[in-house]
C-alpha cells in the first residue's frame, strides 16, 4: 500500500476537539490534494470525523469550511495549476469555492466508532486519558478489517505503553501536534520501542506534506514539549508560593506572570499559558507523567485545589478563553485570582500597585511581538540580558532565577534522554511555544545566580 | 486647442489600505459615499459652490463588483443638491479611468456645452481580500486571457514584461533600478500626509525591497514591493475655461493650464507586441508633446503610471528620457528622485501614494496642480523657469487605455 492508498481512508477520533479539529482539517486538505492526482482516479478518499457529540460535529464542518477557505486563499497559485484543465472554473473565487466543496465532501462526520473499521490510519486525538485511549484503540483494532496504523496525538503518554496495552505489535506512533495544529509548525514525532519502520516513513512523509517541522523525541512520558512545560509551570507555582506571603496571592501571581512574560520576553506569562492550555489538562498531563519520574514530584496541590473549585481555564467552543488563574474578556486579562477569597480582583489595580514593586524593565528591552520578527536576534537578546544580569529590581532577580530554572529543566531533558540534543529542546520551545530564545543558552552568568 | 483649459481646486482624500494607521481589515470602513462626498464637497467649497458647476464627470473602474453599485453618475447630486438635474457622466477605462474623465471634461469644455466641470475619481477596493479583488482587476484585461492568467492577474502580466526586460537587459541591473524606484516612491509618499505609505517608518527600504521574486509565493519576476497597493480613495478637481475661472472667482495663480492631451487605445484582445516597451504610452506621449509644441526637455516633472515599478521604468523610456534598456540606470543615477533633474511621482505615485484604480488619473492631476501652483507642502519641488511644464501618464490595463496630459505653470 503506497502513501496515497494508505491515506485514502482515515479516521480521526475526537475530531471535534481542539486538537482533533485541526488534525482533521489538515488531513482533509491533504486528502483533497491527493484526490486531484490522475493516478488516484480509482481511489475514494474518506475521512471519518468521529466524536461523541453530534452538535460539536456540526460545528466542526463549519470550522473546516472557514479554515479551508483560508488555506485555499493562501495556495491559490497551486490551485490554479491543479484546475488548469477545468475550463468551467475561471476566477479565483470559483476555484476556491470548488476546492472547499472537495475538502468537505471527503469528511464523514459520525458518532459511531464502527465507522472507523475500514480505515487504514486512525488518528487518535481524544482526552489525555490513557485508559480511554487504550479502550478505543483496542476496540477499533479488534474489529477493524484493515490492520490499521495508529497515530496518537498524546502529549504525555509513552507510545510503548499504548502499544503494549493495545496489543498493536508496533502499529502505533506518537505524532504530537501543537495547538492549534493548523497554525503551529511543530510536530513531535515519537517512535515507541517497537514502532514499525514503514509507519515511521509514512509519518515523515505525511509531516512533510503538511509542511510541519519534525522534532524527534524519545518515548519518555511528557516528551520534550510537556517535559519542559509542566516543569516550567511548577517552577512558576514555586515562585508564586515563595512570594505570596510577602505580597498576597493575586499580587504574587501577577508578579510571576509578568516577569515570565515581559522580563523573559515570552509570548505570554506562565499562568496565562496554563490557562490557555487548561488547568485541568495540565493536571491530567502531570498525572500521566508523574509515575515515570521517581526522583521528581510532577504534581501541584494548587492545580488540584483550583480544579476542585471549578477554576479550569481552557477554551470555550468558540475559541474564547475561559477564566483560570486570570479572568478574561475578549482575550484581555481583566481579573486575577485571589485564592484565599475565592474571587477575582481587578487586574489593573494589582498591576498599578505591583509594577512599582517589580521595578522597571531593564534597558534595551524589546517586547516579544517585535523581537520575534527579527531573524538573527541573538545580539539583541544578549545586550538585553546583560542589562538584566546587572539589574537589581525584584523583576530582574526573579527573572534570573526563573531562567536558570528553565535552563536546568532543558538540560535535564537531555540528561534523561527525552531529547536527543540541547538543540532539540530549544527548537521545541522556539517553534512549539514561540519563545524568542531556547532555555539552554548562555545569556546569563548561570553560576552566579 | 481652440480654447484655453485650466484645472483648479484639486483635492485628495487619504489613500486608505495596508500601511495607513487608520486601516484595520477587521473593522468596517468608509464606503463609496464617504469618499465621493469628502472629495467632491472640498473641491466645491473652493470654487464658490456647486452652483458654479455645469456638469460632473465621474471616473471609476469597478464599483459594480467591489461595491455592488452601478450607475455612478447618480453620486453627483448626492455630493451637493445643487448638482441635481445637471448632467453627470461616468467613464471607465480600468486604471486609466481618471485620465478619461479629464479628457472627457476637456472635450465637453471644447464643445462649449459647459464652462466648469467637476471631475471626480473614486475607487473603494478593500471590500474584498486581494485574492478576490485580483479577479475584479483582471477584467481590465481580456476576459479570455483570465483562465491562463496568474492568480494575481495583473502582477502576472507585468511579471511577464519584467521577465522579458530582464532577459534583454540583465536581471540584476534591472532589479536594482526597480528597487530604487520603490525607495523613491516611499520617500516621496512620506512627504504627503494623504499617501498610503505616509506612515512607513522603514529606514532600510532598499534592503526591504531586495528580496528575490518567487513564483511560489507571488509571481516569478516581481515582489510585493514592485506593486502598487490596494487602495480606497477619491480625488477631485475642477476643469474649466477662462470664463469658468471668472465665474468661480479663481485667481489665475491658483490655476494650471492644460496645454495638450492625448488619448491612445490598443486592442484589448492582443498581447503586447514588444513586452519590454509601453508602445501605446509612447504613442500618446508623442501626440501630446506634438500638440503642446514642446520638447520633453522642457518638462519639469512627471506623474507616471507606476502600477508596477517596471512600468515606471518603461514610462521613462516611453517619454524618451532614457533609451530603451537605460531606464534602470536613469533611476539609479537619481534623475527621477525628488531632487533629481526630472522628479517623477513627487507624492509617491501609485506605489507610494496609492492606486485607487478609477481615481488614479485624477490624483495625478491633483498632484500636478499642487506642484505647479506651489501648494505641494513638504512635497514641493522647485521648478526651473525653462521647464514650466508637467506631464501625467494614466494607463488602463496592460498599456491599453492611455491618456497623457501636459500642464503649464502660470
Describe this structure in words.
The complex is a heterodimer of chains A (449) and B (410). By secondary structure, chain A is an alpha/beta fold. Chain A has 2 domains: 3-216, Rossmann fold (3-Layer(aba) Sandwich), CATH 3.40.50; 225-448, N-(1-d-carboxylethyl)-l-norvaline Dehydrogenase, domain 2, CATH 1.10.1040.10. Chain A is 50% helix and 12% strand. In chain A, strands 3-2-1-4-5-6-7-8 form an 8-stranded mixed sheet, with helices on both faces. In chain A, a hairpin with a 2-residue loop joins strand 9 and strand 10. Chain A is globular, with a radius of gyration of 23 Å. The N and C termini of chain A lie far apart (57 Å). The model of chain A has no long low-confidence stretch (mean pLDDT 96). By secondary structure, chain B is an alpha/beta fold. Chain B is built from 14 helices and 9 strands. Chain B has helices at residues 32-46, 63-66, 75-79, 97-110, 130-138, 153-169, 171-189, 205-208, 242-247, 279-292, 309-319, 327-332, 349-352, 360-372, and strands at residues 5-12, 55-59, 88-91, 116-124, 232-241, 255-265, 299-303, 389-396, 401-408. Chain B has a 9-stranded mixed sheet, with helices on both faces. Chain B is globular. Chain B starts with a strand and ends with a strand. The chains are: A alpha/beta (449), B alpha/beta (410). The A-B interface holds A 73, 76-77, 79-80, 87, 90-93, 96 and B 129, 131-132, 134-135, 138, 146-147, 150-151, 215-216.
CATH class of the largest domain in chain A: Mainly Alpha
Q: Structural class of the helix and strand makeup of chain A?
A: alpha/beta
CATH superfamily of the domain at 5-129 and 231-253 in chain B: Thiolase/Chalcone synthase
Written as H for each helix and E for each strand, in order along the chain, the element string of chain B is EHEHHEHEHHHHEHEHEHHHHEE
The assembly state of the depicted protein chains is heterodimer
> Could you say what the CATH architecture of the domain at 5-129 and 231-253 in chain B is?
3-Layer(aba) Sandwich
What is the helix content of chain A? 40-55%
Most extensive contact: A-B, 11 and 12 residues
Strand order of the largest sheet of chain B: 3-2-4-5-1-6-9-8-7
Radius of gyration of chain A, Cα only, in angstroms?
23 Å
Q: CATH topology of the largest domain in chain A, what is it called?
A: N-(1-d-carboxylethyl)-l-norvaline Dehydrogenase, domain 2
Strand segment tally of chain B: 9
Q: Please tell me the CATH architecture of the largest domain in chain A by its name.
A: Orthogonal Bundle
